[in-house]
Amino acid sequence: MDSETFEKSRLYQLDKSTFSFWSGLYSEIEGTLILLFGGIPYLWRLSGRFCGYAGFGPEYEITQSLVFLLLATLFSALTGLPWSLYNTFVIEEKHGFNQQTLGFFMKDAVKKFIVTQCILLPVSSLLLYIIKIGGDYFFIYAWLFTLVVSLVLVTIYADYIAPLFDKFTPLPEGKLKQEIEIMAKSIDFPLTKVYVVEGSKRSSHSNAYFYGFFKNKRIVLFDTLLEEYSVLNKDILEESGMEPRKDGEGDSEEIKAKVKNKKQGCKNEEVLAVLGHELGHWKLGHTVKNIIISQMNSFLCFFLFAVLIGRKELFAAFGFYTSQPTLIGLLIIFQFIFSPYNEVLSFCLTVLSRRFEFQADAFAKKLGKAKDLYSALIKLNKDNLGFPVSDWLFSMWHYSHPPLLERLQALENSKQD
């Protein structure tokens, strides 16, 4: 990494860290004030008044719970909007990542809120109803219901929800698609389709992922990941009056400087190496293991919720002296009582995630992609202004992916071989 890129990365990570500190501090202060001044019982009473205006009395607890959720998520969206605006149009804009206009951003925010409510409210009403009628073993039925919902959402997200926000197009026929299909077949990955998502209209950050169950797997590539496909590269070439050229063609210093400064993305071989890493997660069962861990944790939480939900002192501590609404019980127990446990669990999952990343890198090695993955990681880190140096203790607690230098070191021996 040259000194200029190193300095850009340092400044970007400094800005992001500062933003994370202040936004996190604000969230903690906001949450504390809400608890101290009785924000939760006040919002519950306000929800009851709105229900009363519509002719629903206190016996319609589920209806009141849905109004509470709507008001709570609306409050959260409005208080978080300034921070999101600052992150997008100040920090990301300053460092060259933001591709959105203010109009696009606001339209996107409204659309996200509406889609969230369309999913959250029906699911929550059914969950509350199951808890109400489930008897002594309601926690089993509630867990099974959330399991089914999560699997359905994972299945339909990329086909029906994500296209509401981004444009997905099939990867054109050509060498890259052919090589992706060959690699998938070599490891028995049941690939059905390969899509390119137009992520460049939001940000110049890049990504790739796969989704689907059983024999219906699909791969999604961000256009910013593909050097030959990225709109950002084309825009820079057009603005500079340059025509696409082969590597090394032309000897103008000005042209060389412009080519050097353009968004790189990855070459086809490097894209295949990145996909080799992602498919490694599937082949090694990481996705299934994460689902199992998540559902075991979910079952444990519902079981403990069943044990604690009858304790009136928990509700009284949060300002509910005469009633014990089920939704409020879920909020108190899952968000506050489980908070220490959630921190420990989060750390354990971070450690496991880093282990999975090393294993996926090792899988890409076995596919003969070590050299290309090595160069792809460097390019992606540079394109995303990742800082290559990390404090071991900080990264161990916060980073779900190992720092770049650790991953490169693990790949180095195979690369030399």
From TrEMBL:
Peptidase M48 domain location: 171-413
Domain CAAX prenyl protease 1 N-terminal: 1-167
Catalytic activity: Hydrolyzes the peptide bond -P2-(S-farnesyl or geranylgeranyl)C-P1'-P2'-P3'-COOH where P1' and P2' are amino acids with aliphatic side chains and P3' is any C-terminal residue
Major site of localization recorded for this protein: endoplasmic reticulum
Cofactor comment: Binds 1 zinc ion per subunit.
GO BP terms: CAAX-box protein processing
Molecular function as annotated in GO: metal ion binding; metalloendopeptidase activity
Transmembrane regions: 21-44, 64-86, 113-131, 137-158, 299-321, 327-352
EC numbers on record: 3.4.24.84
Membrane topology: Multi-pass membrane protein
Top EC class for this record: hydrolase
Active site residues of this protein: E278, D361 (proton donor)
Subcellular location: Endoplasmic reticulum membrane
Cellular component, GO, one term: endoplasmic reticulum membrane
Keyword DNA-binding applies: no
Function: Proteolytically removes the C-terminal three residues of farnesylated proteins.
Similarity-based family: Belongs to the peptidase M48A family.
Protein name: CAAX prenyl protease
Organism expressing this protein natively: Ursus americanus (American black bear)
